[in-house]
């Protein structure tokens, strides 16, 4: 009987659009809403970081290739045209494609690759044992997350 209950819970959590919130609400009744709120904050933070990074990359490319209409900076120092172009491009990808899982996987890979290179360069550049241990742990854990996300995305296709 306990095995049946465990499998039933796994099926409910696996089919949920918010599995962490569902699992937390099973453990503690009111924690599902808290987990959902934390997830929304994390998602908004990630979207903000993606938009900021994409707009700055677009701005730097426009400086190199002399595209003055994209490289314009507002009075507060923000590349408002590059931000607008990045936001429209990102929203268009989500709206006009039916491949949300693949876009999410690409997003995870694009986020984790810089961490891999940062950890690898810290491992090579610094002689401090503490920094080398931290960068090794960061390199290994990022590689595990990257490989796991790729396998999970292949499994869901």
Please, could you describe this protein's structure?
By secondary structure, the protein is mainly alpha-helical. It has a domain at 99-157. It contains seven helices and no strands. It has helices at residues 2-14, 19-27, 31-64, 68-71, 80-96, 100-125, 129-156. Helix 2 (19-27) runs antiparallel to helix 3, helix 3 crosses helix 5 and helix 6 (100-125) runs antiparallel to helix 7 (129-156). The protein is globular and about 55 Å long. The relative contact order is 0.06. Mean pLDDT is 76; it is low at 1-5.
Jot down its keywords.
157 residues, 7 helices
Low-confidence stretches: 1-5
Alpha-carbon distance between the two ends: 33 Å
> What structural category arises from helix and sheet content?
mainly alpha
- What is the chain-wise order of helices and strands? HHHHHHH
Instruction: Give the beta-strand count.
Output: 0
Number of helices: 7
Query: What radius of gyration results from the CA coordinates?
Result: 21 Å
Biggest sheet features: none
Which descriptor suits the 3D outline? globular
Helix content: over 70%
What portion of residues belong to β-strands? under 5%
What is the average per-residue confidence, as pLDDT, rounded to a whole number? 76
